[in-house]
Amino acid sequence: MIKLDKIRKLIGTFHLRDISLEIPEGYIIGLVGANGCGKTSLLHVLMGLYKPDSGEMELMGMRYPEDEAKLHDSIGVVLQERLYEDYMTLQENAAYYGRFYSNYDEVYLLQMLESYGLDPKKKYKGLSKGEELKFQFACALAHHPKFLILDEPTGNFDPDFRDEFLGALKNFIADGEHTVILATHLTDDLDKIADYLIYMEKGSILTAMDIEELRSKYRIVAGEDYRMKLLPEQRIIHIEKGEFATKALIRHRQIDTYDASYTVSAPTIEEFMYFVTKRSKGVEL
Questions:
Q1: pTM above 0.90, yes or no
Q2: Which of 18, 56, 184, 186 has its CA 20 to 30 A from that of 37?
Q3: Distance CA 182, CA 190 (A)
């Protein structure tokens, strides 16, 4: 279980404000929002790199700082930063940093490197960005964590490995006892695998919900402009006239029906984010 209650943190001039969540184990959680909205700062709080200024946080029944060692053992990370030593080989790097984890498993690490097409004898300095992230992912799994924290990992993966990576995340949480939080701008990936969505805006959580709730609560409705004006205004989050049709994100109820002249679908995460970002101030989600 991830429990955050009114977490606040000032980082320079940037504020994380009143972050509250409660998410059970066994989820892949998509973390989205515009650049600078606070995604990485929130991940750093979860990793214990930033101490909250106020609020309460509990991860898998543990808390910082009293359970810091156990939490360190339980969390695997993939970040944008270069985390390893340039002139060590991949195997040397993994062993050097693996000694800080009680469950580091070199046999498993080597199996994953082979699976990902990485030579354990290659120097870290010689890796491409995509290879660096593959190596980070192998290291993140090599100590058998319960919780994976992933910050924009997929952008530099080739399409074939991206599919393999997404499959590995689904396998990781399959027993219902493991959790993934994945910050990404590639929302197509989240449409494929995410169970839960956290949408941040200006240091706060704008909305957080189960993906199935998102798909049942909202609809994308498209049609001719004059027909779209007949939609109930109080349910429209944002409406936009395009070259060929007018399209809107609206709040949907199970009892609602739509005229056959409309094209109606559940929103993708990208569509949801686009229309929510365009909404007028004060519009209710």
A1: yes
A2: 56
A3: 8
Residue type, 172: F
* Tokens 């080989």, located at residue: 89
- Residues paired with residue 208 on neighbouring β-strands, in sequence order: 198
Coil, helix or strand at residue 251: strand
Cis peptide before 65 (omega within 30 of 0): yes
In the block, residue with structure tokens 């002139």 = 87
Which residue in this structure is represented by tokens 């991860």? 59
Phi/psi for 157 (5° steps) reads -85, 145
* Exposure string over 148-173, b if 16+ CB within 10 A, otherwise e: bbbbbbbebbeeebbeebbebbeebb
Q: Which two tokens stand for residue 98?
A: 């693996």
Taking only Cα atoms into account, the Rg of the chain, rounded to an integer number of angstroms, comes to 21
Amino acid at 71: L
Residue segments in the chain with a per-residue pLDDT below the cut of 70: none
Bridge partners, 63 (sequence order): none
Residue found under tokens 């969540």 = 21
Q: Which amino acid is at 37?
A: C
Q: Which two tokens stand for residue 269?
A: 């995460």
